[in-house]
Amino acid sequence: MTQIYDVIIIGEGPAGLSAGLYAARSRLKTLILEKEKAGGQIVITDEVANYPGSIENATGPSLIQRMVEQAQGFGAEIKLDTVKEVELEGKIKVVKGEKEEYQAKAVIIATGAKPRKIGCQGEKELTGRGVSYCATCDAAFFEDLEVFVVGGGDSAVEEALYLTKFARKVTIIHRRDQLRAAKSIQEKAFENEKIDFMWNSVVKEIKGDGIVESMVVENVKTGETTEIFADEEDGTFGIFVFVGLVPTTELFEGKLEMENGYIITNENMETNIPGVFAAGDCRKKSLRQVVTAAADGAIAAVQAEKYISEEFNG
Amino acid sequence: MIELNKENFEEEVLKAEGPVLVDYWGPTCEPCKALMPHVHALEEKYGDKVKFCSLDITKARRLAIKQKVMGLPAIIIYKNGEEVERVAESEATATSVEEMVKRHI
User: Which of A37, A128, A210 lies at the smallest CB-CB distance from B88?
Assistant: First the structure.
């Protein structure tokens, strides 16, 4: 017979690991399921400067490594398996992975979000060929070349700053006339001589034969389009896209209440199904950061423990 | 896994007989590092039919760009000196790489 966990946590980013740490610390039998690799989005971030108390020069990977060790230290079990289906309605929840089937009294969904695409022509074909969503992965290709960063939020501007360590010139293309990033990050960008801005602009098309060679940019105020070509000697340039997130919640469509793909919870991280909680970026909320993901995870675990003791031990 | 560099790429990949898999990676690419053990496991399974190689792009950037690789991770299968298929970036997973390998053996 399949063993029954107290809590299954789907996702091993900051929300899932924090939930795992709190649940295991409460002596709940805890399983964390991750499909590919620990960490979620933060693991591809070079510098984590805004997580309270994070060590000097903390990187995404170093922070996540510590969270993993901490959760495992308290007894959380971590397995690599891709969840294919969930049955959440019953008193015992069933989580079906590619490798195994798991059962639990409560489920915490911490599946996070992935980068949103521009959605323009040529983007898909040229991904990995000049179009990138991961600066720490791909910056090294663009040593002394030109790069464009699309977006105006924290991620876009921080990654633009990171890219100045490699690229000859970094141009931020933003559809508004001012940045949305935190003021301290903006100041760094405005002071950086390598960073230039194209305001009120959106990318309409990306072109190239096997690698990026040009792109068409539209000024949203005037409707005017311009084609930007790679410097002849370079032959190519980079386009790094940071235009927001899409929640990873396809598995729960039609099962849980959602808004624009984000799972709706109350302040106790409870979804509309008893015993099912959501935490982190996959949940409808106002601020998606490591610190809020960790907080969500802690709340979800504590509430899951309360739910289990009321429903199963009462 | 054969470690590739500027000197041996042509010999080991382009002039090789039979299918050659090249795992393009970089030391700051976390998704690459997460994928690498899965590729090693595939080598255990399919190593007799496919030659498994890896290339650190920070040591051969121009070579990678010449192969039209500008994003990591990128796993490419070559036959007779030509690229026949690749999976890259977020689409490169343990499952998608194995499926690609199976198509070329």
Answer: A128
